[in-house]
């Protein structure tokens, strides 16, 4: 049976799809979505979006956060540290006042306890929001912003703030620490900054 099953042709998961690095969100898109989520009282989504931007975590780490990971007692912490599932390395992140307000409102609304998952799943068999559910929520955000869905994914959230930080400071080491990368080369590849920097230099060179 195993030989028969292994002989079945399986199409590549990425056949016919646009793959590669996903675009980070622009500042105007971030604020446009925040305002929409606030006006429509989409409390959970606002907390998820803001924390995703601040934390710079992979989707699997973001959805697995518990209330105690971001809270000190009844107060939302200004900084947090979590262990990354992929690398088993700790990474720290800041929680801005905008995100703290959104998290406080969500925790109160959902009546979450310290040991509760921060984003419980609405599917009974899953204790917390799954990465596929997160991806579907993000795809809906992209649609609402009128952006091209194929160009964005959950890594767009992770890449957004580090990309802005690098463009403003050119401090690659700081970005490496924020993303929790073991090697600087990984950060360079992840942000695609060599290409961006090369194009910027080329655009500024007139002949």
TrEMBL record:
Domain Tyr recombinase, chain residue ranges per copy: 20-206
Database matches in PROSITE patterns: TYR_RECOMBINASE
Record key words, sorted: DNA integration, DNA recombination, DNA-binding
Calcium listed as a keyword: no
PANTHER family found in the cross-reference section: INTEGRASE_RECOMBINASE PROTEIN MJ0367-RELATED, PHAGE INTEGRASE-RELATED
Family designation: Belongs to the 'phage' integrase family.
Protein name: Tyrosine-type recombinase/integrase
Native source species: Comamonas avium
């Amino acid at each position: 049976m195993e030989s028969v099953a292994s002989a079945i042709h399986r199409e590549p998961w990425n056949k016919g799809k646009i793959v590669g690095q996903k675009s980070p969100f622009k500042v105007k898109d971030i604020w446009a979505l925040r305002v929409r989520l606030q006006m429509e009282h989409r409390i959970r989504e606002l907390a998820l979006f803001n924390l995703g931007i601040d934390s710079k975590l992979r989707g699997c780490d973001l959805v697995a956060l518990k209330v105690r990971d971001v809270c000190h007692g009844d107060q939302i912490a200004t900084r947090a540290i979590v262990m990354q599932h992929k690398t088993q390395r700790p990474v720290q992140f800041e929680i801005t006042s905008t995100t703290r307000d959104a998290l406080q409102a969500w925790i109160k609304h959902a009546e979450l306890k310290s040991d509760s998952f921060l984003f419980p799943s609405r599917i009974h068999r899953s204790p917390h929001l799954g990465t596929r559910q997160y991806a579907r929520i993000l795809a809906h955000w992209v649609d609402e912003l009128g952006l091209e869905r194929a160009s964005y994914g959950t890594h767009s959230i992770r890449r957004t703030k580090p990309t802005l930080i690098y463009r403003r400071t050119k401090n690659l080491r700081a970005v490496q620490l924020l993303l929790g990368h073991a090697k600087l080369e990984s950060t360079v590849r992840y942000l695609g900054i060599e290409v961006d920097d090369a194009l910027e230099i080329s655009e500024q060179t007139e002949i």
